[in-house]
Design goal:
Rossmann fold; 11 helices; binds magnesium ion; alpha/beta; four-stranded antiparallel sheet; about 30% strand; 2 domains; single chain; binds adenosine-5'-triphosphate; Alpha-Beta Plaits
Length: about 300
């Protein structure tokens, strides 16, 4: 008999009036896997994650966790998941250790778990601090500590690093990687940051308007766009659009300021770039900027939707 996947989401839909928050998403997650749901504001990430957490109910489709269903096996499911919501509000008048103790009591966990959680998220020195006096980053770490208290097989984290500075974000990443290493924890994490998705997660699911746009490893996603490379240029006089076609094959082009400025995505920089530079020289155009770089997930997102991930 085949084992049930850790998480199975099967063609799930959730509509709010005419808003299709989640519009037919399926996914599967195995033990120890870190998966990112990457998408802009309003993509449907929170709605999807909250359905997996049992906080919201799908209108259609089915979600099972280790073969268990919300509404039938709630207690068993709660034992295997740990979660942090997009915005966590703590009780101001409780200290860090008291907050953890409160949550530990919900699960009837031993006191030692509080220490493990404090250590795991690096908040030992703040144990006696009132939650209202924690910095944003420390609050996020406390939320992770709570999610981790029952040492769950699955962590469901909704934007665990939004609003953090780059170094605090790194610290959260380290904490999550440690959990994975030590406990083989699986995780679904929602994020707007492609660096976060690609650093932490082997698999990335790009969502927008309630649907999956693309999924795979970072390499697979970029390879779908033939590992495109991007040329940004700026010249002093507009170039006729048809010239760019004559110079060579490109995947997409976006011209601005009467064609004086633009971005061209090409399959092969070494084929396209010399032709472009030669044209500029022949026409005696003045080149004020030129930049080449590898395509990123954000570029891929723009190509797919015409918008930025973090707009
Ligand atoms: N309770 C609700 N009632 C009505 N509309 C809702 C409700 N919850 C979510 N929506 C709508 O569903 C869509 C998806 O929202 P959701 O919060 O899942 O997006 P998200 O990807 O988490 O966005 P963000 O990155 O901003 O957190 C949005 O258009 C939102 O306005
Ligand atoms: Mg959200």
């Amino acid at each position: 008999m085949q084992k049930d996947p850790l998480i199975k989401v099967d063609n799930v839909k959730k509509y709010f009036g005419s808003t299709k928050a989640v519009d037919g998403i399926s996914l599967q997650i195995e033990k120890g896997e870190f998966v990112a749901l990457l998408g802009p504001n309003g993509a449907g990430k929170t709605t999807l994650v909250e359905m997996i957490e049992g906080i919201q109910k799908p209108d259609k489709g089915e979600i099972s966790i280790k073969g268990l269903l919300w509404g039938k096996n709630d207690k068993e499911i709660r034992e295997v998941i740990g979660l942090s919501l997009q915005e966590t509000h703590f009780i101001d008048k409780l200290r860090v250790d008291e907050t953890l103790a409160l949550f530990a009591s919900f699960y009837s966990l031993p006191k030692s778990r509080i220490e493990t959680a404090l250590e795991m998220v690096g908040l030992e020195v703040k144990r006696k601090t009132y939650t209202k006096n924690l910095s944003g980053g420390q609050k996020q770490k406390l939320a992770l500590g709570i999610a981790f208290l029952n040492q769950p097989e699955i962590l469901l984290l909704d934007e665990p690093t939004t609003g953090l500075d780059p170094s605090a974000r790194r610290e959260v990443w380290d904490i999550l990687m440690n959990m994975k290493r030590e406990f083989n924890t699986a995780m679904i994490l929602t994020t707007h940051y492609m660096e976060e998705a690609s650093y932490l997660c082997k698999r990335i699911i790009m969502v927008d308007k309630g649907k999956v746009l693309a999924r795979g490893t970072l390499e697979q996603l970029l390879a779908e766009y033939k590992n495109g490379e991007i040329i940004n240029f700026e010249v002093d006089s507009g170039i006729d659009e048809k010239v760019f076609k004559e110079l060579g094959h490109y995947l997409s082009i976006n011209l601005q300021e009467n064609n004086k400025k633009g971005e061209i995505i090409v399959e092969s920089l070494v084929n396209y770039m010399p032709a472009l530079l030669k044209y500029i020289e022949q026409k005696s155009l003045k080149l004020s900027a030129i930049e080449c770089r590898k395509m990123t997930l954000d570029d891929l997102f723009i190509t797919l939707t015409g918008r930025h991930l973090t707009e």
